[in-house]
Amino acid sequence: MKKTILTGIRPTGNLHIGHYFGACQNWLRLQDDYDFYLEIADVQALTDNFNNPEKVRKNIYEITTDILASGIDPNKVHIFLQSKIPEIAELTVFFSNLVTVARLQRNPTVKTEIAQKKELFGNDGESITYGFLGYPVSQAADIVAFDGELIPVGEDQTPLIEQCREIVRKFNSIYGETLKEPECMFTKNKRIKGLDGNDKMGKSLGNAIYLVDDENTINTKVMGAITDPNKIKKDDPANPDVCMVYYYHQLVNDEASCNTICEECKKGARGCVQCKRELITKMNEYLSSIKDRRRYYEEHPEEVQRILDEGTKMAREKAIEQLKKIKHAMKIDY
Ligand code: ATP
Ligand code: MG
Question: Listing from the earlier edge strand, what are the strands of the sheet with 183-185?
């Protein structure tokens, strides 16, 4: 029997190159050989966008279109909508008894995200909601509702998968060996940095290049990317390791060109403007086939809706079966 893969994405914006190189490349590699569920996590997106449901609604279709444009084959991957699977919400309630509030408050991903969302949750996170604090529990339910074994995510998700593993162990120790402990799978580029040099490119961080960005937008973003601050003049030698332009060259350019860029940069034989122009050209070349596929789905929105409906139907069947097993183990299958 094929192993099950579960992964997800929050519909809070379009797919960016952090997703593409940090997670999507694994999805593309794995889609042939696994029973693959890809969740559009609208319920999770509402935990920090509850005051803006229209944004989430719009982005469900945007992100599904991006996923299809990136080459995910809907005949191989069940793309589904989280809010249409009530079993996930039900399992979240059962799991919420198996995790302490203190443990959630210590979760490093949750801590980082609370600090980034001062406007919503206050300076010290004093206005944090029950829902946001608990989203790792709901994410554990996302995984377990589909019996997920392998979780292809970016490195920022590690603490959330660890939280899920703890909940699974706790469940098994109380109700008997029932659930599998999921494992993370990373791409070679497990965390893609932002244009501003931030450790993570993220939708809510305003530092992303999106797959839908047109040539002008890419031009503006790359021109504003962080380079070595010690390089003042065109022919100053510089350190490519602290330069976002070199960093993205390594994603979209070939190895020989990257080696040349690195050597020239270190010697002061390459200006930043020339280097950025070359990156813009390469980036546009790289994204062109994705954009072609996207255009097809933009022109066929009914096909996107059908893919989402069918994926959700298949996912629901799986979740219903899994919940039966879980309720039986918990002796609440009245
Ligand atoms: P948000 O800011 O709304 O949280 P995000 O950009 O972090 O958005 P998510 O929808 O939270 O995107 O993440 C979807 C998947 O993409 C996760 O597996 C996450 O680890 C991965 N991912 C997101 N950003 C990066 C990145 N910069 N590098 C590698 N993987 C990433
Ligand atoms: Mg995120």
Answer: 77-81, 35-40, 4-9, 150-152, 183-185
